[in-house]
Write a structure and sequence with these properties.
Radius of gyration: 11 Å
Number of helices: 5
Number of domains: 1
CATH topology: SP0561-like
Number of strands: 2
Order of helices and strands: EHHHHHE
Helix content: 40-55%
CATH class: Mainly Alpha
C-alpha cells in the first residue's frame, strides 16, 4: 500500500507518487498541476499545511486519498 505522511511536503509526495498531482487537483488544491508552483511553494508546504491554507478539512482529504488506495499517516 502506498503511504502518505501528511507532514511531508507536497513536492516530496508528488515526486514519490506522481498520480497524486491529478488527485490533489481534483480535491481543489490550486496550483498543484503547475510544476513551478510544486517546485517552489510545494517544497515549503506539507500536505497538512496545504489543507489549512486552502481551507480543506484534513480528515476529508485523508478519507478521499484512502479511497484512492493510499494509507495516510498522521
Amino acid at each position: 500500500m502506498k503511504e502518505i505522511d501528511v507532514n511531508k511536503t507536497l513536492y516530496e509526495l508528488t515526486v514519490q507518487y506522481p498520480e497524486l498531482i491529478d488527485i490533489l487537483a481534483d480535491l481543489g488544491f490550486m496550483g498543484v498541476k503547475n510544476p513551478i508552483v510544486r517546485k517552489t511553494l510545494g517544497k515549503k508546504t506539507s500536505l497538512r499545511e496545504g489543507c489549512k491554507k486552502q481551507g480543506k478539512n484534513l480528515d476529508e482529504v485523508k478519507a478521499k486519498l484512502e479511497k484512492k488506495g493510499f494509507k495516510v499517516l498522521q
